[in-house]
Amino acid sequence: MTPTLKVFVARLVGLVVLGPDGESIGRVRDVIVSMYLPGQRPRALGLAVELAATRRRIFVPMSRMTNIDADAITLTTGRVNMRKLALRPNEALAVGQILESRVQTDDPDHPELTDADLSVVDLEIERTRALDWVISRVALRTMRKGPLRRRGETVVVTWNHVHGLTRLNLNRPGHGVELALTQFEGMRPADVAYALRELPEPRRNELARALDDERLADILQEMSTDEQTATLASLKPSRAADVLEAMDPDDVADLMGELPAAEAEALLAQMDPEESEPVRRLLRHSPDTAGGVMTPEPIIVSAGTTVSEALARVANPDVGSATATMVLVVRPPTSTPTGTFLGAVHTQALLREPPANLVAGILDDDVPRLSPDDPLEEVTRFFATYNLALAPVVDESAHLLGAVAVDDLLDAVLPRGWRDQEPEGTQ
């Protein structure tokens, strides 16, 4: 197959990167471009490749590419440098920083665009005889109507007729926000959190403000406490409260426990009382106990609930995988703190029962349970002993207070700041 000599950079984003042995290394997330070469075309220096296992972004030189096809890029032989990507002075991310930039053109084929307000849509790069990759053409979109052009129409011009491309203010407010949000679509919250962590704080905060409440809440729950605090501080108090209301109460409680008391109370006061009350209850427990890491919102039903109703609760996409392994059964009320805790039904048992049957008929009334004052060391041994993904937390009066999920336990027992550490996995 003849190697591709020209390609638009947006076409590369998302392609699988294959090593010389055909094994997947990761996916292309951007192209690094050298921006300041007086009298020369800007060069495409390499690919920003996100490793499949660790989400670390590494630099792969353009010279390593041997072929580009419909869904993959193949690399030449040789060892891939797993060092974390770091931009040097005068380098920029083509998709993350250049696209959507405002420029001008003096292309003689498009005199009607002289002095027009244009936005960079894409960059075409081509391989030269010297085997360098350089920007050859630029796709531009008109930003406003003109006598001969409609707003939003796209034209492609040669690089030397574009002005402002190598003098871009890449950190100006609003630059590339829409495109960045489009890139985040379909990505897992943990992956978006990692991508945001790689950005300068002003840029990270700008993108956070552009995300909707639910999406930002999911992403914040994958960040370290310091990152959460900094991001929320960049929002207006009312917006910060809306985002906190969309987060899981146990995650909000963890965050509030790290803030100064006055600051935490100010945020809680901004929240709806129905949303802040579960958080306040959690804050009464020490953070190094079962009560301090539990969620007050596991799946809770009464004994008269049908199997089909319980399975519908399990199938809710907002329910975490650990929480979905077990349905907890109580006497009314079913909001924590509940009536008397009766037991639990494992999801596997629900799947084996006729839909119209009641959960009371398959109730495990001897399911292991935790006390809210159990220390984390004991909780860890508990999970290892009983091989559970979720454990109910019950007080001395047999009221269900919540449940500890194994993922929340891991968050609590891993070293502080573990989310900030560079992943150590390799391909």
Automatic annotation (TrEMBL):
Entries under SMART domains matching the protein: CBS, MgtE_N
Coiled-coil intervals: none
SUPFAM superfamilies noted in UniProt: CBS-domain pair, MgtE N-terminal domain-like, PRC-barrel domain
Keyword Transmembrane in record: no
Alphabetized UniProt keyword annotations: CBS domain
Residue span, CBS domain: 363-421
Pfam families: CBS (PF00571), MgtE_N (PF03448), PRC (PF05239), SH3_actinomycetes (PF26205)
Organism of origin: Gordonia phosphorivorans
Protein name stated in the entry: Magnesium transporter MgtE N-terminal domain-containing protein
